[in-house]
Amino acid sequence: MANYWWEEVEGKAKVHWIGWKKMTKDKEAVGLGFKDLQMFNKALLAKQVWKLITQPNLLVSKVLKEKYYPKQSLVNCKVPNNASWIWKNISTVRMDVLEGIRRRIGNGRGTRIWEDKWIPNRSDGKPTTDKPHECQLKQVSELITNSRWNIVLIFKTFCP
What we know:
mainly alpha; 3 domains; two-stranded antiparallel ribbon; 4 strands; elongated
């Protein structure tokens, strides 16, 4: 698109009447409303990462898991040198997506208190309290009794 607007005509460069950043701003922000193709591509790749996480039974999810991270998680897998272009591109946005997501608690059995990102509205998603030395709690499920938070245990373990 940039070449269309700014390419040479008869050996002379066209005048750059407006910068690319302004062209990609929304019209409401006094821009021309062009899509920023790099950000658009990144968003589409992030959508594929989200599908790998939330829909592991899709055929594409199963194939990519078997090929690129059969024994690890999506978080820990390495990108091999011979990876396909789609996997290399998905891998470039994988950590951005993983940085922003939090675990849904449910019964809490699959969520580790001190290691996993599970607390909303926190940049790191983890408790602000350091793990007490005598604390034996490991899973979020241990903070739940009869499908309710064990408030006494929570106030005993964590700072207000």
